[in-house]
Request: fold
Amino acid sequence: MQKIGLFYGSSTGNTASVARLIRQALLGHGVAQDNVSMFDVATTGAQGLAGYDALVLGVSTWDIGEIQYDWADAVEDLDGVDLSGKKVALFGLGDQFSYGDTFQDAMGILGAALEERGAQLVGFTSTAGYDFEASRGVRDGQFIGLSLDEDNQPELTTGRVQAWVEQITTALEL
Ligand SMILES: Cc1cc2nc3c(=O)[nH]c(=O)nc-3n(C[C@H](O)[C@H](O)[C@H](O)COP(=O)(O)O)c2cc1C
Reply:
């Protein structure tokens, strides 16, 4: 069984609570409790990423297109960390109505930093059902992970998480 590292950074608790939901959904899809370890990057940093077979990483966007600040520090820790071939599923928290030009930018920033170190992103999702102008978290018309908006669409979060966890259990070969 693969060891999954579930790391998140969260300034007001939204990404943290979605991380707990995702953990529950993984357990519901048959992943053993001992095989999912959850960490707040504010406490652990990101050097531990390399020690897991598969990664699920949660990040919010702040300050108009910036990566959440604990992740900003954690990404610096990644210098020299080799993530070659490691599969990573990203989930992002943002606010599409107040920040429609920078919606989910942090997913794009984190995704690029991981790919530079050899990681392979999985779990891309459709932009249908969202209303925004621009996002660094979109590539070829798809989000590069799961996009969640607790500010405007909290009622959609559980269903989006369930569908995505099903998708990534296949992509991460869990
Ligand atoms: C000052 C401020 C700036 C923000 N900037 C963005 C942004 O540029 N893009 C975006 O998608 N969301 C933005 N957000 C929304 C947050 O990402 C959103 O509220 C998220 O759920 C916070 O998650 P967290 O509590 O886990 O950090 C911003 C929120 C605030 C208060």
